[in-house]
Amino acid sequence: MKVRINADDYGLTKGITDGIIRAHQNGVVTSTTMMMNGKAVDYAVEQAKLNPSLKVGIHLVLTWGKPVSEEVNKLTNSDGLFRFTSIFDPSDPPNLDHLEKEWTAQIEAFLRTGLPLSHIDSHHHVHGWPPVQALIAKLAKIYQVPVRVVGTLKNQPDITMTDILWDGFYGEGVSGRLFDELQTLDVDSVEVMTHPAIVDEELESMTSYAYPRKRELDLLCSMRVPSWVELF
């Protein structure tokens, strides 16, 4: 089975970035996805260039922080922050013209770092929202990279990176039995979503999901890869 173990939120904070680097250097994490509006993007780029074996993709953002482009006010509130939450509201879909401008700007900002773009996913899985299916497929084809599979993209194997996404390594589902659980799947390829981090005050102030990231980091650095697994 081909297994991609991806760490989300790269570049959001220094602690997250350092945790992901450690989980790659000393553990089983093979790739990460960077938030181009994060607080530690420059540092994350620097660390990625020092660790070229870590594949880096983009974590497209619509639900946290500020846009990287200007004049996308249909996506923001009066404070200039993204106005959307992690829960899709069918009565208030994002303006697709502004979203295409912003997500293109995020990808172009990534490319200007000089890092090769591995793949596309998104913060809170917003790329799986029904109204943006055509847009995410368009971006995948323009930039010629695969996309994280989510429920609404299962029927688009031409653009998705794996057969399924394993999102069970989160919260109460975080355990050292990850590979045992994956072995029960009847698929050829799977992406495992993870969130390792070194917890600091900055991270604590930003999210309620802080200390579980330390447990993820410890486990990801202690796992043995079975012979039937091909990490990629």
From TrEMBL:
Gene3D superfamilies: Glycoside hydrolase/deacetylase (3.20.20.370). The keyword Metal-binding applies. One of its GO terms (molecular function) is chitin disaccharide deacetylase activity. GO terms for biological process: polysaccharide catabolic process. It comes from the Bacteria. Pfam families: YdjC (PF04794). Its EC number is 3.5.1.105. Keywords: Carbohydrate metabolism, Hydrolase, Magnesium, Metal-binding. Its cofactor is Mg(2+). It is an enzyme of class 3 (hydrolase). NCBIfam families: PRK02134.1. This is Chitin disaccharide deacetylase. It comes from Radiobacillus deserti. The gene is chbG.
